[in-house]
């Protein structure tokens, strides 16, 4: 049996929409009054990647050089019914996309937690400071999220502060973790 072509996949997706058989998100509980199709072979993390990697979503979220302010709409190209080779534009409110992201993020977290192995540390190292104390309350989800956000902001600042290959001319926390060859290369300016 030959694998399905991208066109076949598009046709299946269009038919599901036309018949109002929208597949449920993975892990979703179906309401009795909602006629939904069974969930496809997709996972929350994979669907999250689809949305986050979508150029129209990124343009709406971050803006462009012509329109630096984010848009409140995602202009999503979709096929015309009956003419899948032609595209039309559908305006999806950014809030609706963010709601889908939040739902998929929750599902993705459940999927990742289900895949946790016994050899993983009970306390992830990012929660612990150099002095061995917790940076935030590990039992508080909001505190953990704030810490992760802060670490991403620090990483962004490091990368935009005139770094070469992710390393700057100034010593950083990460340089203490370099092996001898990396320290030698860094010393040569590589």
Based on CA inertia axes, which overall geometry fits? Answer: extended
Instruction: Describe the strand arrangement of the main beta sheet, using strand numbers.
Output: 1-2
Q: Helices and strands: which structural class?
A: mainly alpha
Q: In percent, how much strand structure appears in the residues?
A: 5-15%
What is the typical, i.e. mean, pLDDT? Answer: 77
Largest sheet: 2 strands, antiparallel
Number of domains: 2
- Write the H/E string, N to C: HHHEEHHH
The poorly predicted ranges are: 168-176
Radius of gyration: 22 Å
Strand tally is: 2
Question: How widely separated are the two ends?
Answer: 51 Å
Number of helices: 6
Question: What percent of the residues sit in helical stretches (DSSP H or I)?
Answer: 40-55%
Question: Would you kindly provide a written description of the structure presented here, covering whatever features stand out?
Answer:
The structure is a single chain. With 190 residues, the protein is mainly α. It folds into two domains: 1-24 and 38-116, no CATH class; 124-190, no CATH class. 42% of the residues lie in helices and 10% in strands. It is built from six helices and two strands. It has helices at residues 6-18, 44-52, 55-62, 94-114, 141-160, 180-187, and strands at residues 73-80, 83-93. The protein has a two-stranded antiparallel ribbon with strand order 1-2. α2 runs antiparallel to α4. It is extended. The model is unreliable at 168-176 (pLDDT under 50).
């Amino acid at each position: 049996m030959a694998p399905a072509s991208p066109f076949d996949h598009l046709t299946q997706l269009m038919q599901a929409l036309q018949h109002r058989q929208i597949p449920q998100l993975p892990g979703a509980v179906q309401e009795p009054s909602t006629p939904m199709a069974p969930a496809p072979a997709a996972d929350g993390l994979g669907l999250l990647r689809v949305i986050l990697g979508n150029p129209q979503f990124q343009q709406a979220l971050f803006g462009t050089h012509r329109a630096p302010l984010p848009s409140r709409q995602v202009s999503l190209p979709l096929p015309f019914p009956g003419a899948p080779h032609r595209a039309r534009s559908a305006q999806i409110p950014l809030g609706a996309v963010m709601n889908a992201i939040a739902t998929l993020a929750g599902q993705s977290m459940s999927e990742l937690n289900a895949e946790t192995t016994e050899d993983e540390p009970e306390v992830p190292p990012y929660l612990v400071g150099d002095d061995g104390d917790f940076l935030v309350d590990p039992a508080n989800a909001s505190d953990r999220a704030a810490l992760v956000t802060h670490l991403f902001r620090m990483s962004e600042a490091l990368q935009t502060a005139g770094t070469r290959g992710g390393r700057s001319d100034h010593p950083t926390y990460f340089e203490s973790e370099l092996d001898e060859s990396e320290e030698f290369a860094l010393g040569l300016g590589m």
